[in-house]
């Protein structure tokens, strides 16, 4: 009986893992160097897949706890943009339909990884709510109140609504949903990690659009954070309409009267 071509075997290896024992056995007993290399690749891929599955399982501990307590639609909630000097604060709430391989705290991912995961989440049958608070409202009510408002609105945009919230860092003041706050929740809960990716990518894309409107500040590069180049642009041009005028050092430059 003719042996399966290496091209066909490569295609089968690319489709996994998992790999059935028939394929592994065929590769193991095939004396061709190419087949042996494919067998070794299968073993490496299976090992990585097992490690990733264990990591994902560890990040679903709090979701399982809530499920054991009788909750069925558990949303992770997180925000992006507390600290920048410009642009909105964006919050997201996500109910995962299933675990997403590679998903992690957005700060641990590259921009390329975040964008790829964002597309997977948006188009993967998960439930997502997003809300934002503009700089003028942040200045008016303060960053913490803006945080509560954005997170609460993001949760309200979920349809159907959740019945339990896992929130990164703090409880949402005034929320009517049962909730649990998790310190460093974006590193401990897969649902919160998903919300962190949605919020971060959404805000980054907003800042890239604001860069087109206000190119002098470099928003596409630093996303509104107080980098050296951003501070130099502020010193040279002054604040623009999307800067947070209650934040230092903008507040001092806007409100300090001329002495001479």
Keywords:
260 residues; disordered C terminus; alpha/beta; 5-stranded mixed β-sheet
Structure description:
With 260 residues, the chain is of the alpha/beta class. The protein folds into three domains: 6-58; 61-207, Ribonuclease H-like superfamily/Ribonuclease H (Nucleotidyltransferase, domain 5), CATH 3.30.420; 210-255. It contains twelve helices and five strands. The chain has helices at 6-14, 21-29, 33-58, 61-68, 111-123, 135-141, 143-156, 185-188, 190-213, 219-222, 228-237, 250-255; strands at residues 74-80, 89-95, 127-133, 164-168, 179-182. Strands 3-2-1-4-5 form a five-stranded mixed sheet. The chain starts with 5 loop residues before the first helix and ends in a 5-residue tail after the last helix. Residues 255-260 have low confidence and may be disordered.
Write the layout of secondary structure elements.
Elements: H1 6-14, H2 21-29, H3 33-58, H4 61-68, E1 74-80, E2 89-95, H5 111-123, E3 127-133, H6 135-141, H7 143-156, E4 164-168, E5 179-182, H8 185-188, H9 190-213, H10 219-222, H11 228-237, H12 250-255
Parallel strand pairs: 1-4, 4-5
Antiparallel strand pairs: 1-2, 2-3
Helix pairs in contact: 1-3, 2-3, 5-9, 6-7
